Amino acid sequence: GHVQLLPPQNVTLVSKDFEMILTWTPGEGSPPDVTYTVRYKSQDHMDKWIKVPHCKNTPRTSCILTCMFSNIYVKGQAQVKAVSGRLQSPWVKSQFKDYFSEVELAPPVLILNVKENLIQVNASFPLPTCVENLTLKYELNHWEAGSEDKKKYEGYRKDSVTLDTTALRSNHCFSARSIFDSIELKHSQFSQPVCVPLNHKG
Question: Span 105-130, mean pLDDT?
């Protein structure tokens, strides 16, 4: 009988948390020792598939490709095959995507610096190294714990927001989301609220 290794299924380039990731599911009846190998190409080098060193013979069913593509505006494509012992499946290609228009954002991480009569809020973005220069903004919400009344602030990535806390009491909460103005305006989810007690005397 002719033994065949069925190719991976649902091969898709997706974006999550600022990354570009190739995902797939195992082909039907895949053996337990199956591994996968991934290659990619960019539209500016269409004649050449390039190996992805960190996704050669990987047991995982995903591969991060964010920093493999030459730049964020060029569409790229990836392909994956299954390998088991001497058997290899055919390659299966993903669709074409580019980072700039497809990127899905992660919320920023808020860093709060509480001083005597003020609080300084900075937003840090969990960006892969190759896209550290993206022009991102963030929208910051500030509210008193238990209240529905939120104040909004907006700033560019490197901006910090400083609030005068002289008149504030009790717990105050902060949450932010990332904003990226690419082909359309994109927002991430809001970050988990961070709450701090202010001016507790005594």
Answer: 93
